[in-house]
Amino acid sequence: MVRVIIYVLVSILLAVSSKISAQNNDQNSCETEYHSQFDFWVGNWKVYNEQGVLLGTNKVVKMTNACTIQENWESMKSSSKGTSYNYFNKKDNSWNQVWIDNSGGSLVLKGKFDNGVMTLQSDLTKDEKGVYRDKITWTQQNNGSVIQEWVQVDKNGKETKKLFKGIYKK
Questions:
Q1: pLDDT at position 58 over 60
Q2: How far is CA 67 from CA 5, 13, 40, 80, in A?
Q3: How far is 156 from 153, CA to CA, in rounded Å?
Q4: Which residues on neighbouring strands pair with residue 110, listed in sequence order?
């Protein structure tokens, strides 16, 4: 009788701990629908301007062990290289990017995926150029290419300067 009671108690404990472990794995998973919203950008890309001139290459890798997408940019027009880390923040349901280049430049962006477009922007910046935000969008095209546009916008969201437009082709 004691053996039966011990067996039942151990079985209950194993079932409860298994259920708790499964719930924790679901909460910590990088495989949610939100984490896959930016997967259309993953790949080995050649990046062209609107005139078809090759601007550079970009290797974008999904790092599932860190719920992160890593970008590795290399310009064909200059010695510019850079890396960004992109991740979905479950606490505020936002996408985030931290960009660092080989000249010491950096950019921190935050935003969301909506209607097939990833839109990230910086906090309001005030410097010798004025008061602005950096805003970058990525839009997947029907042919599998991706268009990335980087603009500066004023505090009201009106575009004031176009900085970059790249057409990503695998």
A1: yes
A2: 43, 31, 15, 26
A3: 7
A4: 96, 121
